[in-house]
Each structure stands twice: as C-alpha cells, then as structure tokens.
Design brief:
With about 325 residues, the chain is α/β, with parallel strands linked by helices. The protein contains 9 helices and 13 strands. It has 2 domains: about 130 residues, Rossmann fold (3-Layer(aba) Sandwich), CATH 3.40.50.10070; about 140 residues, 3-Layer(aba) Sandwich (Rossmann fold), CATH 3.40.50.10070. About 35% of the residues lie in helices and about 25% in strands. The chain is elongated, with a radius of gyration of 26 Å.
C-alpha cells in the first residue's frame, strides 16, 4: 500500500486605441476566409427531356447566390484560389491540391460539394467544409430537397447557407503555437532503474509523444512548433518535469505560445498514470494541468492512455 501512496502523493505535488482603418483591417482578418469551389452536378433521373442547359443555369445561379450569401453580414470572407491552367474545379484536381491552393490564397476553409438529381422530384446536395490549416473535415452533410425549379433551388441554397454559417468549429482565430516536448517517464515501480528495458521504454514514450502531437495538430486548435535537435540537457535527458517550468522559456525561444510536458508515471509494471502540463511560454504560468485516472496496462498501452487524456480532458474540455 505504501508503494502506491508515495507515488500518488508525488503526483499531487507536481500538479500545481487604433485608427479606423487599422480596426477595419483587424476585423477583416478575424473573419474566416472561405474558398468555394463550384459544385458538380449529376442527373440520373432518367427523364427524357434534355435539361442540361437549365441545370447549368440553375447551378450557376446557385453558386453565385451561395458565395454572396456567405459573405453577407461579415460571416465569411470569400477567397478565390488559383489553379493552373484554369479555375479551380473538382474535376481533374485532387482535394489535397484544392486545400493547398485555398490555403495559399489565404482561405481558412475550403468548401466543396455536388448536387445529384435522383428522380423528377428529389435532389441531393452534399456539402463538405475542410480546415485548410490541418486538412480536418469540419462539416459534411447530405441535404435532400424536392423539386427542380428556380424556387426549389433558391430554397435549398438558403437552407444550406444557414447550415454552413452555423457549423461548429469554425476557425475564428489562429491556432495556438505549442511546443510538445518528448514524453518523460517517472518510474515508481519496484526495481525502477534496475529492472526493465530503458530502450523499450523510450520507444513507448515516443509512441505516446506521437499520439499527443497528432491529435493536437488534427484538432485545429493547436499548431505544432518543432522541438528537434535542442541543446538543453533537460530536453535531451527528458527531465523537464524537474526543471521548475524551464520548458516555457525554451518554447518561447522557439516562437511557441505554449509548452507541453507529458509524463507517464509508472506505479507498477502494469499500472500507470499520464499527466500533462501546459505553460504560457511568455510568462511561464501554468495554463493547463491534466491527469488521467490510474490505468491498467504495460508500457505498450501508454499511447492509448495519452490519447484518452488528450481527447477527454484537453480537446473536449478546454
């Protein structure tokens, strides 16, 4: 029992006025830029009458209204990406290349989609929004609307705009630049420093580090700052947890807003706790301290424990 109480006590101790033009420019910069790629149209209704010209005209009017309505009220800033040799289109261009073109043009979001006429009265519109900084799909929905008239298309467009404007997770501010340092091991298990395989532990710590970095980058809330090849002994030896917050100053020199130190505390060979400490890189103040419950599993499960803590205690509960 004493072997369990001592490390848990250690864990508790560880967690401790501008011009009008300038204001206008700042406000514009805060509005998310959106690159809207013209939707595709497919008709498999089997109707005998050739309606291609009508559908081309309605799709053109739909896209014009969509872009105009998204820009109304300052909801979005419309951005037009450049693709060679012609305008950006879904046909013949990968989504990845469209994301790159949109990002390079200054867009925060890429909007793509298509409309499919299923029958005389039923059409489907699929719309997808992608965060250009991370490639994360922010929004994907399939809308069904009835009718193939000008009014039916206008009603569908108005409804879709409302859904896009209300979509969660819109990038309204730049991601936090964070230096995620290599995870460290605090070993309270019997035989620590004598038994076990140090090289194997490092492999599993690297897996946990990779899991944390991947989840944080994909969230869109954070932008990773590289921490490779640093000269600090505390970084090289993975002892940042013992340096009284020195990681903040290191992160600041790297241009990061925040620093993260992750520690796996091994209670026994099959029990561990994961904890995270995030500091303001400028002030060194503790911003976030998160700790998992006692988890069961050997070192190969550290990355799963890290992923659960990142998702449940950091990304879902900022």
């Amino acid at each position: 029992m004493r072997l369990f109480i001592l490390p848990m006590l250690a864990l508790c101790l560880w967690l401790a006025p501008a011009s009008a033009n300038a204001e206008s420019s700042a406000n514009a910069a805060q509005v998310a830029g959106i690159a809207v790629i013209d939707f595709d149209y497919v008709d498999t209704s089997g109707e005998e009458r050739d309606q291609r010209r009508e559908h081309e005209a309605r799709l053109e009017a739909f896209m014009r209204a969509l872009k105009g309505d998204l820009a109304k009220g300052g909801s979005f800033r419309i951005v037009t990406p450049a693709c060679a040799p012609g305008p950006c289109a879904l046909a013949g261009v990968t989504v990845g290349n469209l994301v790159t073109a949109a990002r390079e043009a200054g867009a925060d979001i890429l909007l793509i989609g298509g409309i499919h006429k299923m029958s005389t009265l039923v059409q489907n519109a699929k719309v997808e929004a992608i965060d250009t900084s991370t490639g994360r799909v922010m929004f994907v929905k399939l809308f069904t609307f009835r009718g193939d008239t000008d009014d039916a298309w206008r009603r569908a467009e108005a409804f879709i705009v409302g859904e896009i404007v209300a979509m969660p997770g819109r990038p309204t501010e730049p991601p936090i630049k964070i230096a995620v340092f290599d995870f460290e091991l605090d070993d309270f298990s019997g035989g620590a420093g004598i038994a076990g395989d140090h090289a194997a532990d490092l492999v599993q710590l690297d897996r946990a580090t990779g899991e944390a970095r991947e989840l944080m980058a994909k969230s869109g809330r954070y932008a990773l700052v590289g921490v490779a090849n640093l000269e600090s002994d505390a970084v090289k030896e993975r002892t940042l947890r013992q340096c009284n917050g020195c990681e903040a100053a290191i992160a600041s020199k790297l241009g990061a807003d925040q620093s993260l130190v992750g520690v796996v505390t091994r209670i026994s060979r099959t029990e561990y706790v994961v904890r995270l400490q995030i500091r303001d890189a400028r002030t060194g103040a503790l911003v976030v301290a998160r700790q998992s419950d006692l988890r069961i599993g050997a070192d190969y499960s550290w990355n799963r424990g890290t992923a659960a803590l990142i998702r449940n205690s950091l990304l879902d509960n900022p």
